[in-house]
């Protein structure tokens, strides 16, 4: 199965996690461009303004200013963000968070592994799954 | 989660058997339920008639082109129901049409996968779905209110 690199938007405030995601995707050659946004307010503005939609969003829940649930809700309310796949990548394992995420139409909920190697492996799996197995929707400009 | 209740909504008997045989984990294969058309799918998911006492599935594999009620209508009904919309739906369709892909995501399918034509690729795709959704993804587990 051929892998097509894609544009990924990472909404994450933890610098260590950002670097891990970047390193894992680079190793997997999984993206054309990785945009990083560090807080929820900026993420909402990204979608409300004229920026081109990414192919895939990785979203943390605990974010400064506006939390991930609100970001998800607002992204889903925009024309550009209604059908962009969103993967929640969070340190939470709380069932309430997981259920709420799915009820707000996240595509997957993934708990960040604490172990470094496992974290890298999980991010690579996300890349592999979305790039080689799944058909992504066309982007809305 | 000890076992995973999986509902396969598929009218093609060959694809049903192939999907069943491709599943490696007993946790899914032993709890794979199959319905062959959209009407039965809605009965199952809304626990009507013979499915009144059936457990809601943890995950759904949904074909788009189904007899009686189309897969898109099944998806729409599920994802607009507050007690069921959290259930992940994987579209497994022979379609590669951009419109079908676009519409499925707009109706909140969790991912869209085109059935590979080659047998080995089909098996590989089902196994990748299984590995990813069981080993990597956290499924919702809360009982529905």
Describe the fold and architecture.
The complex is a heterodimer of chains A (141) and B (145). By secondary structure, chain A is of the alpha/beta class. In chain A, 42% of the residues lie in helices and 18% in strands. Chain A has 5 helices and 5 strands, in the order E-H-E-H-E-H-E-H-E-H. In chain A, helix 1 (15-28) packs across helix 5. Chain B is built from 6 helices and 5 strands. Chain B has a 5-stranded parallel sheet with strand order 2-1-3-4-5. In chain B, strand 3 (59-62), helix 4 and strand 4 form a beta-alpha-beta unit. In chain B, helix 1 packs across helix 6 (119-136) and helix 3 (38-45) runs parallel beside helix 4 (71-79).
Alpha carbon gyration radius of chain A: 14 Å
Main sheet summary of chain A = 5 strands, parallel
Order of helices and strands of chain A: EHEHEHEHEH
- Provide the structure class of chain A: alpha/beta
Average of per-residue pLDDT values of chain B: 92
Q: Determine Rg of chain B (CA atoms, Å).
A: 14 Å
Q: How many β-strands of chain A, per DSSP?
A: 5
How many helical elements of chain A?
5
Give the number of DSSP strands of chain B: 5
